[in-house]
Design goal:
2 domains, Multidrug-efflux Transporter Regulator, Chain: A, Domain 2, about 260 residues, 3-stranded antiparallel β-sheet, 9-stranded antiparallel β-sheet, about 25% strand, single chain, 7 helices, alpha+beta, Multidrug-efflux Transporter 1 Regulator Bmrr, Chain A
Length: about 260
């Protein structure tokens, strides 16, 4: 038999942890002296302690470990469990690597967008628009990309292969519960060859105070571009307000434009 100190020294588990495991029923001393309350452990219990330490170090919870010990944890079973855990960790590393790549891409997108906006931002006015195109309605900003894709399909164009500049309008100013998404070709005559007849006149009011920023190539995330634009305006005591305009140019460039108002 050996004392709790000897067991701790031999296994690398602290006395505090050994007492905690006893409290939760994970490791019971082979003998407790009723007069001194001194604990003694059988030599074979060292292997159990090492197994618990190994499992804890590799992410297994105490409840899981208790279940495993109740079933009888052999060396072969421990090896199998560690191999399963290894596989889980490899999968997690792969997933985290993908997530890290996305985070880095977004950071790069924000930084690049901020730099471009700082150099191309123009305070101006916006003319009223009246174009022939298509309109969809969504209830949340996360639904806008899907609406844009549907509208471009109706226009018979691909975002990456444009035959004419396209104006996208995002308007949440008339009803707080919805966002009206519109798409129209600058060259409205291009609609004449479409089979569909479900079209609408897209009207947008002009703005006496507005901001315009042009990107020579489309950013990875349009949402991040708007965030960078608002961050730059904030330093001027301004913010954007709707309707928001996004022009996709044939050559791959993109222009963002929106009315502005003073920060409250």
């Amino acid at each position: 038999m050996e004392s709790i100190g000897e067991l701790a020294q031999r296994t690398g588990a602290s006395r505090r942890m050994l007492r905690h495991w006893e409290t939760i029923g994970l490791l019971t001393p082979a003998h407790i002296d009723p007069s001194t309350n001194r604990r003694s452990y059988a030599p074979a219990q060292a292997s159990t302690v090492r197994a618990i330490v190994a499992l804890r170090a590799n992410g297994f919870g105490l409840d899981t470990i208790r279940d495993l010990l109740d079933q009888g944890l052999t060396e072969a079973r421990l090896i199998d469990l560690l191999r399963e855990r290894e596989s889980e960790l490899v999968d997690r590393i792969d997933q985290d690597s993908v997530a890290l790549g996305r985070v880095r891409e977004r950071l790069e997108s924000l930084e690049k967008g901020r730099h471009i906006i700082m150099n191309t931002l123009t305070m101006t006015t916006l003319p009223a628009l009246q174009l022939v195109g298509f309109t969809d309605v969504v209830t949340d900003e996360t639904e806008i990309p899907g609406a844009v894709e549907r509208l471009l399909d109706l226009l018979g164009v691909s975002e990456h292969e444009l035959r004419s500049d396209i104006v996208l309008i995002y308007d949440g100013t008339t009803d707080e519960s919805i966002i009206t998404v519109s798409a129209a070709l600058i060259d409205g005559t291009a609609l004449a060859g479409l089979d569909t007849v479900v079209e609408a006149v897209v009207r947008v009011s002009g703005a006496p105070s507005a901001v315009v920023a042009r990107f020579d190539e489309r950013p990875l995330s349009t949402g991040d571009a708007w965030i960078a634009l608002d961050a730059e305006l904030e330093a001027k005591g301004l913010r954007t307000t709707g309707p928001y305009r996004q022009t996709l140019h044939k050559g791959g460039a993109m222009t963002l434009a929106a009315p502005t108002t003073e920060l409250q």
